[in-house]
Design goal:
Length: about 325
C-alpha cells in the first residue's frame, strides 16, 4: 500500500467518524460546561425599595445585562443617570408589572426543569461547536417588551412572554392568537435556544433573495434539531400539529408554486415577508396553510442536503453561504 492510498483511507475513516458522531445520540455525561442561571427578575422584584445601594449591587452582579436592561429592554434612560433608581422603582412598583411578576413567580418559581433542558441544549451546542462561548442565562421581566435578548456573554429570557396561551394580558395587549399560541412554558426552551443560534449565526448577505432566506432559516432549524433532538417538531417550528401535517401534505405543491411563479430568486421585500414573516396563514394558499412556510421548505432543503452529503458537519453547514449550492447538492425533490 503506497502513501497516497493510505492517506485516502485515513480521510475516508475521518469522514466516517465525523458522520458517525453527528448521527448518533450525543453522550452528554462526557460534556461538561460552565453554565450559570441567574434570576434577575426575582432579585429585582425582591427589593422593598431600590436605592443607590441596590443599583450598585445589580450592576456588579449582572452587567453587561443590567445596562442593557435599563437602557434598551425597559428603556428608562442612561444607566449612569443618578436618578435612574427613581425610574426603576416606578417600573418595579407599577401594579400591573408587579401582578405579572407574581404570575411569573407562580409558574417559574422553580426554574430547575427549564434549566436542565437549556443545559442539555448547550451541551449539544458545545459538542458541535466547541469553540463557541456558553452564555450566562438570565431571567427577567421586561413588562412585555422582549422575549429573548442576547449578547456575547448572556442569553436573557423574558419570562412574562411565556405565561401560557390563555394568559389574559396577551389578548389585552392586542397580540394575535397565532403568536400567543407559542407563548407557553412548553415553547420556552426551544424559543430561547433558537433566539441564541439566530444571533450567533446571522445571515450575512445584504438584500438576500427568497431562496437564501429560506435556506438560512432551514440551517437554523437544522441546528436547533441537533441541539434539541427529542423536542417535538411542532414545538421547534412553533406550529400546531395540524399545521405541521399541512406542510407535509402540501410541501410539493408549495415548492412548485415557488418555481412556477419565479419566486426563488426574488428580492422583493413584500414577497419575502409573505412567505417568511409571521402570519396566521399565507394569502392565496389553501385553507390550513401556516405562516412562515418558507422556513419549513428551507428546513426540508437543508435536511436533504445533509442526508445526501454525509461528510458535511454542522460547522461546515453553517459556514456554507451559497444557498444555490446547498439546493443543488441537496437533490431536493418533495
Amino acid at each position: 500500500m503506497n502513501f497516497s492510498t493510505l492517506k485516502y483511507l485515513i480521510l475516508i475513516l475521518i469522514g466516517i467518524i465525523i458522520y458517525s458522531c453527528e448521527n448518533t445520540p450525543v453522550d452528554l455525561s462526557t460534556i461538561h460546561i460552565d453554565m450559570k442561571v441567574k434570576r434577575f427578575d426575582q432579585q429585582l422584584f425582591g427589593y422593598d425599595k431600590i436605592t443607590d445601594v441596590e443599583i450598585k449591587e445589580l450592576a456588579a452582579e449582572y452587567n453587561p445585562f443590567y445596562t442593557a436592561f435599563i437602557e434598551n429592554i425597559i428603556n428608562i434612560g442612561d444607566v449612569n443617570d443618578p436618578s435612574v433608581y427613581y425610574y426603576l422603582n416606578s417600573f418595579v412598583q407599577d401594579k400591573n408589572v408587579k401582578s405579572v411578576q407574581q404570575d411569573i413567580d407562580s409558574l417559574y418559581k422553580d426554574f430547575s426543569t427549564y434549566e436542565e433542558q437549556i443545559k442539555k441544549a448547550f451541551q449539544h451546542y458545545n459538542y458541535y461547536f466547541p469553540a463557541k462561548n456558553i452564555p450566562e442565562i438570565i431571567t427577567y421581566n421586561s413588562g412585555f417588551n422582549y422575549a429573548v435578548v442576547t449578547d456575547s456573554s448572556y442569553l436573557g429570557i423574558g419570562l412574562e412572554m411565556f405565561l401560557g396561551d390563555k394568559y389574559p394580558a396577551y389578548k389585552q395587549l392586542g397580540l394575535p392568537q397565532y403568536k400567543i399560541a407559542g407563548m407557553t412554558n412548553k415553547h420556552l426552551v426551544s424559543s430561547v435556544i433558537l433566539g441564541w443560534i439566530s444571533t450567533e449565526f446571522e445571515l450575512e448577505q445584504a438584500s438576500a433573495d427568497l431562496l437564501t432566506e429560506m435556506v438560512h432559516q432551514g440551517k437554523l432549524m437544522y441546528v436547533l434539531d441537533a441541539l434539541m433532538p427529542n423536542e417535538k417538531v411542532e414545538i421547534k417550528i412553533n406550529y400546531t400539529a395540524e399545521e405541521v401535517e399541512w406542510c407535509k401534505a402540501n410541501e410539493k405543491q408549495v415548492w412548485f408554486y415557488f418555481i412556477d411563479n419565479d419566486l426563488l430568486y426574488t428580492k422583493e421585500t413584500k414577497e419575502i415577508i409573505k412567505y417568511m414573516g409571521e402570519a396566521p396563514f399565507i394569502q392565496g394558499f389553501p385553507d390550513g396553510s401556516p405562516g412562515r412556510v418558507g422556513h419549513w421548505i428551507g428546513w426540508e432543503i437543508v435536511k436533504a442536503y445533509m442526508e445526501n452529503n454525509k461528510e458535511v458537519s454542522l460547522i461546515n453547514l453553517i459556514q456554507e453561504k451559497d444557498a444555490q449550492k446547498i439546493l443543488n447538492k441537496s437533490k431536493y425533490k418533495p
